[in-house]
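Researcher: I've been going back and forth with a colleague about how Large ribosomal subunit protein uL1 might be arranged in three dimensions. Neither of us has a model we trust, so I'd like an independent prediction. The organism is Lacibacterium aquatile, in case that matters for your notes. Sequence below.
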Amino acid sequence: MAGKRLKAAYEGISAKNTVALEEAVKLIKGRAAAKFDETIEIAMNLNIDPRKADQALRGVVTLPHGTGKTMRVAVFARGAKADEAKAAGADVVGAEDLLEIVQGGKIEFDRCIATPDMMVLVGRLGKVLGPRGLMPNPKLGTVTTDVAAAVQAAKGGQVQFRAEKAGIVHAGVGKASFSEQALLENVQAFVGAINRNKPTGVKGTYIKKISLSSTMGPGVKVEIGALASA
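Model: Here is an independent structure prediction for Large ribosomal subunit protein uL1. You can compare it with whatever you and your colleague have in mind.
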């Protein structure tokens, strides 16, 4: 019966309606019925034009409860730094050998980290890693001498975000198996990061729309309200 009531409530929400974050999480979580653990995704429509330098948006945020996804991390480093990366749990570590592997089209990782001295080498992979959003970037903490911390952050639930041409930012903020409270806190952390990184060139309303969805389910629009200042 509870499932039928939830389904009815879900279907009663039109494309124009919005619901409180707590209700949205409950609806999305309750309707995630796939045989696999669906990812809960957030999409934010922002009043920005990323093509303009003062409205570009890119950054990272560590979700308090992680993403639920196993991140494979590659590190370009040599010597002691390579050893540190391996000890921290990096899945692939190398230099010229790793360069050849990537150039050959074998990209079996979700995050790429490099020490500063390796960027001359990694720069050759711009056309390969760039389109996939994998190019190391000092602003995102993926070009660093502290490779151990970077690997641990990537493995521990750090999410990178970047606004697309239409001002849309989206990311996975957990799994359907997470508790409602964990999903709430992850969403709040993500929206908070978007707010803190508000571009200087924004005029008027910054956040236009927020919606949540699961991998196989439709989206639910969330009331912005307090989230706008989270």
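Researcher: What would you highlight for our discussion?
Model: I'd start with this: The mean pLDDT is 91. After that, consider the following. Helices lie at 2-11, 21-31, 79-88, 96-103, 119-122, 126-129, 147-155, 180-196.
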